[in-house]
Specification:
With 389 residues, this protein is α+β, with helices and mostly antiparallel strands. The protein has 11 helices and 18 strands. Helix content is 33%, strand content 34%. The strands form 6 sheets. Strands 9-4-1-11-10 form a 5-stranded mixed beta sheet. The protein has a 4-stranded antiparallel beta sheet with strand order 13-14-12-15, with helices on one face. The longest helix is centred in the first third of the chain and has 22 residues.
Amino acid sequence: MTIIIDPQGSGIAGNMLIGAFVDLGANADELKEIMEKSAIGFGKVEVTFEKVCKHGIDSTFCHVEMLDNKHSINYPEFIEKINNLDLDDDVKNTSIKVFERIAMAESKVHGKTLDTIHFHEVGASDAVADVIGSIYAYYSLGLNNQKIIGLPIAVGGGTVKTAHGIIPVPAPAVVEILKDAYMTGGPVDSELATPTGAAIYMELCDEIKEFIPLIKAKKVGYGSGKKDFEHPNVLRLIESSDMAESDNIDVIETNIDHLTGEEIGYLFDKLMDNGASDVSITPLIMKKNRQGSLLKVITRKENREKLIECIFKETGSLGIRIAPNMHRGISKREFEKKTYEINGKNYEVTFKIGYVNGEIISKRPEYEDLKRIANETDLPLRKIREMIK
């Protein structure tokens, strides 16, 4: 399953994300209790949820009213208070990562260190409630086990009044937080992306894309913003099943005509150990009718340089060809373990299962498991394969 966070229409804020999570099925009463209890050390808040209609779109509005707010505190003291909250470790640790993003952005903008930065708006009780509430809802829905894709963020325009005076939109801290993300100004003269919302978005997203990938939508949730505009002020979450995944890969190639069969076998294993996704070696006839081999390595971008270095080192090749960012379609893959009794002993076998559009297209046992069982039972490999279905 893939979750799309879509802030293209009206930006993102913590309470909008919480409202959208509730629209997807998060427990509003549970969230209210967690948010109010977590914020109490920073000031009292009251949390309410209601259904609202924003220009024809039915959505959930999470209203966090700050009843009182304690004085700003420095970052180490703030994190210590978060660490002392009675929360699940995953919720607490991810929330701290969100606050760290905000603090790092603020410290860079103001030219201070993390130890000396003080939280103002960021450390307010309502911001604490927003972050804790969003992260709690994320885990309660089991979205930590799903892929999260973010779409471009509408950041708004104009100016906004802050503790540091009147500043342009998007606020400097928001720009820092959203580095490497897609953002666009407008569509209104108002702040649409808050530092809190932007930091949660950046922490939760596994990948940020310009457009929605190939998916099949299953469920949609809308979280409402407080303001009213001439467009629907909502954040959209799309829960989907993957029709097909896509991947950007590099293909590395070189010709080999001077290695022995044993050396080629050693190279094959070395490349796989260094992160290659696949390795193939094809016999070919080279110039002057020399027999040789074409080495082809498929890899993700992050392993490319390491594999190129390995090929140069192990082959002494004078030239390597790279075809970057080749696009391939891949099925969704999962692994399942099953136990089989063979000759009075139980053996565990891992199956690789491939899905497209939610349907199983392949289900094969892993070769290494079959090989291990064949060696231990002294049965032919083909016999083991027949028995393992």
